[in-house]
Structures are given as structure tokens and as C-alpha cells.
Amino acid sequence: MNEFKDILAKYWGYSKFRELQEEIITSVFQGNDTLGLLPTGGGKSITFQVPAMVKPGICLVVTPLIALMKDQVENLRKKNIKANMIFSGMSPREIDLALENACFDPELKFLYLSPERLGTEVFRQKIKGMKVNFLVVDEAHCISQWGYDFRPAYLKIAEIREFIPKTPILALTATATPEVVEDIQNKLLFKTKNAIQKSFERKNLTYFVKHTEDKFADLLKISTHNPGTGIVYVRNRKKTVEIANFLRKQKIAADYYHAGLDMQTRNKKQEEWKSGKCRIMVSTNAFGMGIDKPDVRFVVHMDLPDSIEAYFQEAGRGGRDEKRSFAVLLINEVDRIKLAEQVEISFPPIDKIRQIYNALGNYLQVPIGSGREREFDFNLVGFVSQYKLEILTAYNSLKLLEQEGYLTLTDEIETPSRLHFLPNRDQLYNFQLKYENYDAVIKFLLRSYSGLFNDYVRIDEDSLAKRAGISKEELVKILHDLSKYDVIEYLPRKKSPFLMYTVNRLDDKSVIFSLANYRDRKNRLIKRIEHVLNYAFTNNKCRNQLLLMYFGEKNPYRCGVCDVCRQRNELGLSNFEFDSILEKIKHALSIESIELNDLVEKACFPKEKTVKVIQWLLDHGKISYNKHNRLKWSHTLNENV
Prior knowledge:
- By secondary structure, the protein is α/β, with parallel strands linked by helices.
- The chain has five domains: about 1-195, 3-Layer(aba) Sandwich (Rossmann fold); about 205-330, Rossmann fold (3-Layer(aba) Sandwich); about 340-415 and about 495-525, Arc Repressor Mutant, subunit A, CATH 1.10.10; about 415-490, Orthogonal Bundle (Arc Repressor Mutant, subunit A), CATH 1.10.10; about 570-635, Arc Repressor Mutant, subunit A (Orthogonal Bundle), CATH 1.10.10.10.
- The chain has 26 helices and 23 strands.
- Strand 10, helix 11 (about 265-275) and strand 11 form a beta-alpha-beta unit.
């Protein structure tokens, strides 16, 4: 354990571990399959990065979040820890080199890869030559069809275990219901059940739900009364700009962020927000992954999320410094209708899905019977325009085809320009002698960047051209010429979603769509939405209790500070007094309906206090009068209030 603490101090600058980090590290280091459940901001990456630095070999990290993958690899490299990644958009040669390095470079400690890579033949051949110390599965809830973000590619992870039978697996997630916790361990073939879990309770986070007809006015109040840093989440890109402009007009330093922005712009916005130059970031759910800013004082949701898990993770980005922070959900009746409509939008008819699958093959010019493991730049807007499709119908059809295992669709990815020299130094020297007109540029590249023979190196054409004293167009032409001569592989910057066929393209009539799976997924979405609506529109149960009970915690305490608890606090009763009177009332009404005066007497508490509790129960619909003017319990008697 001292060795772990030395590594933690040397590379991360911390003197001690957070709660449960040590326990998870010890468990996996001893060779045990381990599921670690730590809330957002709980330091999940430390639980595998520290032990992997101690144990010889390479740590494989499977994650679906390419932005997070890039962020973690960059952070490791800044610490002089050698790490690499494989994701959609890399060339076959680039992938092959990364896998070769994982086999033969003893200094390479981490290889991050997307789950789709695990099913490829090239990866399965290469893993046999790797000395893998840990197999880490981040966002492990994605393996469960009961979870809110099922990814079929995750099911391939268990198959990899046969190639590394002695390697322990560490699965990590921030949010999982008890059902999903069980399913993760089963699907990953845990030798022994072993879930290490921290309570989901965030004692410093105050949850509020505000019913309002003017969300902008309420957002302005929140932003004015809470002087610290904030995040405002919305569902679409257009609203990020609209709300950020509204706040700026009110003299509040705000900016917007979404996945449609280029990498340079996103990085600049992130840095300005982290440094405090921008106080409030208005964003889609693209913002937050890997951004560990401890002093976020409030997180506001302007729209209803489509799952409790998503809300909990996003709200959990507030108050990571353990100081008081607020998670506010602004809602109205229109939100209820919009969320209900989401079900039908998310599940187009199966015939429509088949039609879109067929159009996709034609758009990408993939012949029937081919295409497996081929990757394509994919322009969704261009696709729907060409075939006159509705964009949400097309997108949701592709996601359902992904869940059935026919293809994989990534979010939009921006990859920087990269360069790699292909011949060895002697071969390159001979080329320079033969083609003297390229000699100066080759020497300039070798002076400008190190490691060009060993790996793909990021380049910036603008700054290179400026330093070389030529135009960018001229430089790019030379790089393309050198690529044609197989002197370099030059991969220009691009920004695109990627689509990969996981099985050869089929005739659309041969696309088997399980009706049972279709109905099950639709029903699970309906249930998730019901839980969100229950959280948002219930006004008689502690918000903290609702969240904790959703994640399977038994008999959680009321927080005393959420909007519901504050209403109850206004009664002037302690929790003990309120609960004691409530139990008496429940017991009495479980036997028969009772007149008001008789119920007050049966409670055996001071009359004014008992009347306050009865009035509260009436106001919140828990009890009501029957036609004989007697009080009765309106809900099931065994529910918590």
C-alpha cells in the first residue's frame, strides 16, 4: 500500500486516497474481479491507473467515450506516463502500429480503446502477444440491457477473457441500479461476485425542482443569487447559443458548448470556464466528460433528462470540493408532454428501420455481402438530405440497428492531423538523394518533431508552413506527394462521425429485428421516463430519497434541505416529531376512516402540531375526505412519505 501511495503522490500530487479508492485498488491488485461504483467526480481513473503503474505489463482500458479517452491519455502523457489509444477514425496502419507497440514497448503502460475494437480479428491476434496486467471496463453499465445506455459491443469483452485468463477485470461506473450491478458481473464472467460501492448520497448537494412558466427569469435569479461557477444543461445546440446570449445581455459571463464546435474552439471554451474567465457554461450533455472542476456551485437543467442516471451524473458535476452546491431542475407541463413524445420518436416502425438500413448501404456504396469491419466517414445531414428522411427518425433507426449488432455509429469526432515516416533512416536517406526537391521539407519535419519513425505524431500545418516560410497550400501538397511515394503517411485533420459495419451488409429483408427486444427496449425507456417524471412532478417526497431509492439504497434519510424538505421544515416540527405524528396517523387510518377531531386525539400529540401534519398530508394528496366527511389514506399505506 505504501507503493500505491508513493505513486499517487509522485504522479498525481495527492497524499491520500479518497473513500473506497484504496479498497478497489487492493482488490484488483490481488487478482480479484472487481466492480467499483463511485459517483461522478469520485476518482474512478485513479483506481486503475495507480495499480497499473505498480504492476508490470500494460493496462487495457475499454471506454465508449472518445472525448474522455483523449482527455485521460493527454493527462497521462503530461505526467510522463506512456499511454496510447485506438478509436474510430484512425487508419489501419495507425491501428496496427499502436497494437504492435502494445506488444513490444515495455514503457507503454496504458492502451485505451473503444469496445468495437475488441471484436476485430486484428485485435484478437495482437492481444495474444500483450502482457496485460489489468482489463478495465469504464462505463460498465453499457454492458447491461437493463441499463440506460446499452452498447452491444460491450458483450465482446467477456470473449477477450479467454486470451488473458489470469488477468483480473476492473469494471467501473458512476450509476447503476441493483439489477444492473448484478448484470454487469454476470456479463463480464466474474469468477466471484465482488461489488465495492459507495453510497450515492451527495450530502453537500441540494436538489431543487422548480415549476415555472418563465425558465429564463428563474435561471437569471439562480445565476444572480449564486455567485460561483455554474453549468446549464439543455437538450439541443440552438438553445445553448440562445441562453448564453440571454445571460450575456444581463452582464453575466456566459458561453455555450456543444459537440458541433471544432476541437480548438471547444478547448478554448473549456479553458476559459476552468480559469473562471467564463462563469456559466450553457451546454448539451457533451460538456462535462473528464472535466474535473471542483468549485461548480450550481448545475441547472432547463429540460427534463430522459433518465435518472443521466440527471444524477450531470447534477453530480456540482460541488466536487464537498462545499454546498445546488442542482436545480426547471420544469413545466410542456416538458411532461415532450418527454412522453420522446418514446415514439426513439422507436420508429421496424419497416422504416429496414428501409433506412437499405438506404445507408446505397449511400455508402457497400455491396450486399461485404463491409464487415469497414469504417466510413458518415455525414448524417447529407444522408437524410439525399434520401429525404426525417433526421431524428434516421438517427434513432441507426441507434436501434446498433443495438441489434448490425453497425456502430460514433458521435462526431475531430481528429488532428498526424504524420508518420514509413521507411527506416537508410531508406529515407536514399530517397532524399534521389528526390532532392523534397530534401529540405523532410529535414525540416525531422527537426520539428521527434518520434516520427516510431509513431504517428500530431502536426499543425499552419504553424509548420509559417516556420518553413511557405504557404499552407504548398506544404499540404508536398505532404500529399510524400504520401504517394510511401515516404510518410499523412492523415489530415478531419471532423466527422464514423460508421462501421459489424457484420457484412445484408439485403434489407434479411435484417432480423427481434420484436421482443424492440418491445423490451421501448418498455424500458417508458419506465426510465416514468422515473424521471416521478422525480420531477412529485412534491411530497425528499428529492434525495427519491434518487437514492432509485439506485437501490434502503431507507435513506431525508436530506432536510431540498425543496420538498424545506416546505416540510416550514411546519416548525423536527423530523422526529413529524415522523412520529405521521406514524400514528397512518396506523389509525389503516384501520378505518376517521373524523378530523378523532384523528387528532388518536395521534396523542399537541393539537396544533398534529393539525399541521394533517394539513400537509391533505395538501400533498396523501390523505383526503370521503363522502361522509371522514379522513382516509389516499395512497398505499406502506409507501414512504
